[in-house]
Amino acid sequence: MGTNYKPETICIQAGYRPGKGEPRVLPIYQSTTFKYENSDQMGRLFDLEETGYFYTRLQNPTNDAVAAKITELEGGIAGMLTSSGQAANYYAIFNICEAGDHFICSSAIYGGTFNLFGTTMKKQGISCTFIDPDASDEEIEAAFLPNTKALFAESISNPSLVVLDIERFANIAHKHGVPLIVDNTFPTPIGCRPFEWGADIVTHSTTKYMDGHAMSVGGAIIDSGHFDWMAHKDKFPGLTTPDESYHGIVYAEKFGKLAYIEKATAQLMRDLGAIQSPQNAFLLNVGLETLHLRMPRHCENAAKVAEYLQKHEKVAWVNFTGLKDNKYYSLAQKYMPNGTCGVISFGLKGGREVSIRFMDRLKLAAIVTHVADARTCVLHPASHTHRQMTDEQLLAAGVAPDLIRFSVGIENAEDIIADLEQALATV
Predict the structure, then answer these.
(1) By C-alpha distance, which of 224, 178, 186, 234 is closest to 335?
(2) What one-character DSSP code corresponds to residue 276?
(3) pLDDT tens for residues 65-77?
(4) From the CA atom positions of the chain, what is the Rg in Å?
(5) Which run of H or E residues covers position 396?
(6) For 389-408, b where at least 16 C-beta lie within 10 A, e where not — what string?
(7) Of 51, 81, 124, 225, which is least packed with CB atoms within 10 Å of its CB?
(8) DSSP 398-425
(9) What is the pTM of this model?
(10) Is 216 left (phi over 0), alpha (psi -120 to 50) or beta?
């Protein structure tokens, strides 16, 4: 928008600005293809000499408008939508890593991302070292290798709720000449803006709070434009040497600060095609319009629920970043002073089996493979999302066997607590 509007206004107004007689609401460009007057016009698009649309596998006007809104919310320079959060994290790494390369990742991340990085990408020749996000600088730096290309972490980890010391991680990454990539799904840019603390690239599972209603799966990648790829030319040949599949274009020279997203679009989307559908992008945009209203309510309700659970005799422990005795409270206050997210975790006395019985007795809160939308939902990661991980891996990721992930919705907080009370009374 080219203004200094506040986040609330950006949520409503950014990304799409209709002209005279054009639709006030962002249109869904439900088309695979786009028409041109002559062959030369199309040729210039394929040579990356002109901007425009020719095939929705690479770009679509609906998607670009929504990506622009998220980019502005994060304070970035360019962004793109992907078909899922998993695709966003995969593209974010694969855009700068190839077979023989290495990257470092916090061990406290979503189980699906852990498997993507530790198993699937390993099969492609890209290795990953997982480190404890609370490790010392020296321990983290010891994981760097000559072929390390990135440092990756979640701003608030899913489901262990570790708050990342973004500034510290950014300094470590930059000391070794690599970008810091932060998955900012849980706090969203309403709660946290990693670029302000030195992060270089941000990813999102837009499926969560951004969509907000469990309607559309999607992801996003946003580039700050701050990382100087040419200053580390030897580390990032994909961006700093000719791409023979595009007539020898050098992305960092041709596109400058836009190089990272231009490459991800022109190369990865062209070849892999994990783009978000225009229909889903439209639904995501509707969700974004109320993001600034929903996030404070999620945080407020989660605080009330956490305080209730902390006092309950059947509850063994509670993990919520908004509690003053929480290990990460001070970091949360530094990076997310207006609230973190609506997700809490807790365990019941009696362990895993009691936790499972408790979840089965809930009536308002639904057991679903999801988190972070308007409805309160619950999950047992060790049995569900993280069941592919060993007990050792679970503990390294901060996921105790009895951990219940409770995503507090925007219903009335008293009703949510009443549901917890009746379920706890039966175990």
Answers:
(1) 186
(2) P
(3) 999 999 999 999 9
(4) 22
(5) helix 391-396
(6) beeebbebbbbbebbbbbbb
(7) 51
(8) T--TT-EEEE--SS-HHHHHHHHHHHHT
(9) 0.95
(10) beta
